[in-house]
Amino acid sequence: MKHYEIEQLKMYIEEARIIAFFGGAGVSTESGLPDYRSKDGRYTQMEEQDLDPKKVMSRKYLTEHPKAFFNRPRRNQKEPIPNDAHRMLAEMEQSGKDVRVITQNVDGLHQKAGHRFVLELHGHHRTWYCMACGREYLPEEVKKDQDQIPRCPIDQGIVRPSVVLFGENPNKEVVQKSKETIRASDLMIIAGTSLSVNPARHYIQQFQGKRVVVINDEKIDTGNLDVDLYIEGKVGETLAKLETI
Ligand SMILES: [Zn+2]
User: Fold this and answer.
1) Ligand 1 mean position to 153 CA, how many Å?
2) For position 218, what pLDDT does the model report?
3) 65 in active site
4) Which pLDDT score, from 0 to 100, does residue 198 have?
5) Residue 60: how many CB atoms within 10 A of its CB?
6) What pLDDT score was predicted for residue 221?
7) Ligand 1 center to residue 136 CA distance, Å?
8) Dist CA 86 CA 92 (whole Å)
9) What does the alpha-carbon distance between residue 228 and residue 185 come to, in Å, rounded to a whole number?
10) What is the CB-side half-sphere exposure of residue 134 using CA atoms within 13 A?
11) Euclidean distance between CA atoms 112 and 104, whole angstroms
12) What pLDDT is attached to residue 56?
């Protein structure tokens, strides 16, 4: 990224009334969370183990093979912590800027950084729920059966994280609010997303405001949306630079 790009970004932010920050996996990679499609990405890793992510991360697989779903080998991962991207956005919000986050991530790192306005298109891990009766549970209170499948103590239904799997629709209210947020914003920052996950493209096309900024490691196709500023770089690194000018 170049110095004048950061200056321009700072000016856009200062001018904006409502900022919609549309973020993807690239917002969390600096917290040590792998993205999906790159060399070390989660999907790439699964494919190396001959697992099709669209299959094993699906509702169908969960209901038909719950034992395999909940016992898939996972890499040991440290508890991720918010990085400069989450921190800078939360600080902007705390200083009175209207910064509204719409994220495709399920890691809850924006909230951990203290951000209040966060819409999670693909759900989250903070609560789990019973697929039979809908009761909610905290992950740490979930009891597992002899097959290591989390079960509801009331009706033995499968208890699962509140994330959106393949074959499932995002929460209607979250979808609605996300679209409204993008329509209401005058600056949209698209960050750390390849926009390849459907229907990311559909959301950003709701934009009717003034400026569009893209922050991403590699060029992305924004369709017929005009981009005012394209910053090639890591999201946290880029946003942290705002403090230095
Ligand atoms: Zn239940």
Assistant:
1) 7
2) 86
3) no
4) 64
5) 13
6) 86
7) 9
8) 10
9) 15
10) 0
11) 16
12) 86
Can you give the pLDDT at residue 197?
A: 67
Q: How many helices (H) and strands (E) does the chain have?
A: 10, 11
The rounded Å distance from CA 157 to ligand 1 centre is 5
pLDDT tens digits, one per residue of 165-179: 999 999 999 999 999
Q: What is the pLDDT of residue 245?
A: 84
| pLDDT lower than 70: segments of the chain | 36-40, 75-77, 197-198
What is the C-alpha to C-alpha distance for residues 185 and 71, in angstroms, rounded to an integer?
Answer: 42
Separation of CA 155 and ligand 1 centre (Å): 5
**172 φ, ψ to 5°?**
-60, -40
Are 173 and 151 in contact by the 8 Å Cβ rule? The answer is no
Determine the distance separating the centroid of ligand 1 and the alpha carbon of 159, expressed in angstroms: 8
The one catalytic residue in 3, 110, 122, 125 is: 122
CA 164 / ligand 1 centre spacing (Å): 19
> Can you give the pLDDT at residue 76?
62
> Which overall architecture, per CATH, does domain 1-33+81-122+170-245 show?
3-Layer(aba) Sandwich (3.40)
What whole-number distance in Å separates Cα of residue 41 and Cα of residue 142?
Answer: 28
Both tokens assigned to 146: 């002899």
In the chain, what are the domain boundaries? 1-33+81-122+170-245
User: For tokens 């947020």, what's the residue?
Assistant: 181
- Look at residue 180 in the predicted model and tell me its pLDDT: 98
Looking at residue 75, what is its pLDDT?
66
**pLDDT at residue 160, as a whole number:** 97
